[in-house]
Amino acid sequence: MSKIKVIPCSGIGKVFGLLARESVLMVTEEKCPNDTETLCLAHVVTGDDEVVEKIKGETCITMDGCAKYCAKKSVEETGGIVVKSHKVPDFMKAHRGEEHGSGTYLTDDGWKYAEELAEIMVEDIKEIKGGVN
Q1: Residue 8, Cα to own-chain centre: how many angstroms?
Q2: What span, in angstroms and rounded, lies between the C-alpha atoms of 42 and 94?
Q3: Which residue of 44, 49, 54, 70 has the lowest C-beta tally within 10 Å?
């Protein structure tokens, strides 16, 4: 099995976008580097040949910052197989009242929340790989 593609939204200027990107980087660089890789959504959207080839027909996980699902939709349009799709706000209930930061920095609460989001994706990866990670 090739590496699972984990793609966050761009969400520039919004804390939910930053949370999506940082959580994906935690997964691909620290938690599951041998099983995953990330690709820049801008390259997906613009149809970069190299990125399209990496995604087409491949297993993907997306982490969007809002209900527009830009990452999910773009990956699907490019031919990626989105087997898990998440939205940062869906997990906010347990974090009401916390200050997570801004579009350019995360607070301590923000980093903890990004870690929680990363763990959700790690569980997805374990499930996709049949419990082996």
Answers
A1: 4
A2: 31
A3: 49
What are the C-alpha distances in Å from 34 to residues 3, 50, 57?
A: 7, 20, 19
- Distance between CA atoms of residues 69 and 4, nearest Å: 19
State which amino acid sits at residue 114. Answer: A
Contact 3, 35 (CB under 8 A): yes
Type of residue found at 75: V
Phi, psi of 57 (to 5 degrees): 75, 5
36 Cβ contact list (under 8 Å, min separation 6): 3, 4, 5, 6, 27, 28, 125
Lowest-confidence segment of 11-15, 33-37, 104-108, 113-117 by average pLDDT: 11-15
